[in-house]
Design brief:
Layout lengths: L1 H15 L7 H8 L3 H12 L3 H18 L4 H7 L5 H12 L3 H7 L10 H7 L7 E6 L2 E11 L20 H12 L6 E6 L7 E9 L13 E6 L2 E7 L3 E2 L3 H19 L2 E3 L6 E4 L11 E2 L2 E8 L1
Antiparallel strand pairs: 1-6, 2-4, 2-5, 3-4, 3-9, 6-11, 7-10, 8-11, 9-11
Length: about 300
């Protein structure tokens, strides 16, 4: 208990100086321990090395600033990262994914008060139900439009939720199925071409493209995208009433990026696309009012 009280005082000091350059020996002096003994105590109490925690805590604060549409380079400089590349590298090492993906998919709140118990939970395991699958390459054809992150006011505004974006998805899906008649029913939601500076990205709603002869049917407001095969972590959302669908998808993305990736043996593979897959489970009128879908995230070993 004595050690936890001491470590808590260090956590408070770190938050008070979060934008400063913090050194381990300075924190050790607060405790009146030698640097060696302090580092051992901090590790024993929290389960993480002290400077790893300092970096993560800076990134947690930086995430909140990013969620308010600030430029990554400005946020990086505020928290002591000298370059955009240095910030991105530290972020990916800590969270397992690039900051652009995190900002796109997670509504970030101001960091909660740092406590010993909270750190123990963060650095513990995770209980998400996930399958690692190797999928074959496939193509998707769909309608697309450009979106802008500064207009995102809440998690339900991200493009996972078709009813919040400027896209008449019902008519678009009718057109797509009539033109391309994919062998298997199902829709895909894909984000790509994310501009970290402006916060803009392209969102596409599509269906499988499995007949090369149909290439001539692709209209001006449509695009064909090739999805690379490889290892994907596949997350299935809980089966819940349709009214809870938007928040359910947002919560699942948040769990993936804030809990699963940091504690897994994988990191996000930026060379491939993530996508959301919707099938017959998405049709509440056929499932008794409940809905469910899958999120496919490209992964590689850390």
């Amino acid at each position: 208990m004595e050690y936890e009280v001491i470590v808590q005082s260090v956590l408070d000091e770190i938050d008070a100086r979060i934008t400063e350059r913090i050194k381990a020996d300075e924190l050790a002096r607060i405790t009146n321990y030698s640097l060696y003994h302090f580092c051992r105590v901090f590790m024993a109490v929290t389960g993480t090395p002290v400077m790893s925690y300092v970096t993560r805590r800076k990134l947690e604060h930086a995430l909140y600033d990013l969620s308010r549409s600030r430029k990554i380079i400005d946020v990086a400089m505020d928290y002591g990262f000298e370059t955009h590349m240095g910030f991105t590298k530290a972020f990916k090492k800590c969270f397992g994914c690039p900051p652009s993906l995190y900002r796109l998919r997670v509504m970030t709140k101001p960091p909660a008060k740092a406590t010993v118990e909270r750190i123990k939970l963060i650095h513990g395991g995770n209980n998400m139900n996930v399958q690692i699958k190797e999928i074959k390459p496939f193509s998707v054809v769909g309608v697309f439009n450009r979106q802008s992150l500064p207009n995102v006011k809440r998690s339900a505004d991200i493009p996972a939720f078709w009813n919040t974006i400027s896209m008449d998805y019902g008519n678009h899906l009718t057109r797509l199925y009539a033109a391309f008649a994919p062998a298997k029913h199902g829709e895909y939601g894909i984000c790509f071409d994310v501009d970290e500076t402006t916060g803009e990205f392209t969102y596409m709603l599509g269906v499988a493209f499995d007949k090369t002869a149909d290439a001539g049917k692709i209209e001006a407001d449509m695009k064909k995208i090739d999805v690379s095969g490889g290892n994907y972590a596949v997350f299935t959302t809980p089966k819940l009433p349709a009214g809870q669908y938007p928040q359910m998808i947002a919560d699942t993305w948040a769990e993936i990026l804030t809990k699963w990736f940091p504690n897994s043996e994988y990191e996000y593979d930026e060379t491939r696309l993530d996508f959301e897959a919707y099938d017959e489970r998405d049709h509440s009128d056929e499932t008794g009012g409940t809905v469910q879908m899958d999120i496919y995230v490209p992964v590689k070993a850390k």
